Amino acid sequence: MAVYQFYSIIKKEDGVFTVSFPDLENCFTDGESLVDAVGMAEDALGALLSVMEENGEPIPAPSKAKDVELPEGASLVLINVNTDEYRD
Length: 88
Fold this sequence. Notes:
Layout: E1 3-13, E2 16-21, E3 24-31, H1 34-54, E4 75-82
Antiparallel strand pairs: 1-2, 1-4, 2-3
């Protein structure tokens, strides 16, 4: 249905790269490497947003990078997804 871009916060903790989305309360994932974490973030975001679309739930407007509070040692990574790819 749509292409979305949301910022994720990725931080290495205990050897694992944890991912959260400041604009989406219940969207979390992780990965063993940074590349793996970004891929997992794409999957988690795409799956969540496609379900929200199907249920008619409002999708929040994504924050601007300057408005995201970044914890110490974390990175801000822009994640892009096309929800049509998650409908199969």
